[in-house]
Amino acid sequence: MGPLVRLGNAAGTAAIATILMIAFGLQFGLEEPPCPLCNLQRVAFVLCGFGFLLNLRFGVQPLHYGLTLLGALFGLVASGFQALQYIAPGSAGHGAPVLGLHLYTWSLILFFAVIACVAALMVFSGRPEHHSNDHQSALRFRGVYRLAAYLLIAATLANAANSFLLCGPVECSDNPKGYWISKYLPS
Amino acid sequence: MIGLIFLAAAIAMMTALAGYRGVSIGLFGVSAAVAVLWLDRYMTEPLKLSF
Predict the structure, then answer these.
(1) Which of A9, A23, A117 has its CA nearest to residue B6?
(2) What confidence tens digit (pLDDT) does each residue in A111-150 have?
C-alpha cells in the first residue's frame, strides 16, 4: 500500500499546483484580479499542498496530514465566509461564475474534497513511515514525486509575485480593479 | 502582505526539500499564523443570513 499512498500524495501535490495554475488562467482570462479573500483561499491551497509535499520528502506521517487538514480548515473558513456573504436571494455574487458556480463556491467544494482525500489516504496509510535516516527518505524523493513538489513551489512563487504586483507590500483593496505596480509604470 | 505569506510558504517548501524538516514546519506555522491574522482583518463585513 505504501507506493500507492505515496502516489496519492504526489497526485495531491500536483492537483493543488494545478488548481493554483487554473486560478491564474482564470484571473488573466476573465481579467478579474483576485480579491483579498480569494488570495487567502489560494494561500489555503498552498498550505494544504505543504503537508502533501512533506509526505513526499520525509515519508508519510500523521503530522503532515494534520498540516494539510489545518490548511483545508483555513480555506473552508475563508471560502465559506465569502459564500455566505452572497447567499441571500438576489445577491449577484462576486466575479463571473465558472461552470455555473462562483470561484469561492468551487474553493469550498475543493477544500471538502481535500479533507475527503486526506481521510482516504490516512485510512490506506497504515503505520507511519519512520525512516532510519534522512538519506533513505531523500533517495525515494525523485521522479514524479520531485516533479510534483517543484510544480507546487513554482505555483507558490508565481502567486507571491502576482500578489506583490497586485497589492504591493502591505494592504490590498477590497475589490481591486488594477495592479498596484501599474501606478509606477510609464503609461 | 499576502505576497509575503506566499513567499514564506515557498521558502518553507524549499527548506523541506533541502531536508530541514523542523525549520520548514516552523516557517509553515509562521505563514499560517499570519494568514489567519490577515483573514481576521478581512472578515469584518456582517453576514446577512436572515432573509
Answers:
(1) A23
(2) 999 999 999 998 888 776 665 566 677 777 778 888 999 9
Of A41, A47, A178, nearest to B39 (Cα)? A41
Look-up of cell digits 503530522: A63
Taking alpha carbons only, the member of A159, A119, A147, A123 closest to residue A56 is: A147
ipTM, 2 dp: 0.90
Return the SS3 of B16: helix
Cβ-based contacts under 8 A for chains A and B: 105
Contact in structure between B30 and B4 (CB atoms under 8 Å)? no
**Interior/surface letters A82-97, b for 16+ CB within 10 angstroms, e for the rest:** bbebbeeeeeebbbee
Q: What is the pTM of this model?
A: 0.88
Residue A46: list chain B partners with CB under 8 A: 6, 9
One pLDDT digit (tens) per residue for chain B, 51 residues:
888 899 999 999 999 998 898 999 999 999 999 999 988 888 877 777 776
- Interface mutation vs chain B, best among A24, A38, A43, most B CBs within 10 Å: A43
> Side chain identity at B44, as an amino acid letter?
T
Query: If you count them, how many residues does chain A have?
Result: 187
Cα distances from A61 to residues A75, A137, B17, in angstroms, run: 22, 12, 16
- Can you tell me the distance from the alpha carbon of A119 to that of A13, in angstroms, rounded to the nearest whole number? 15
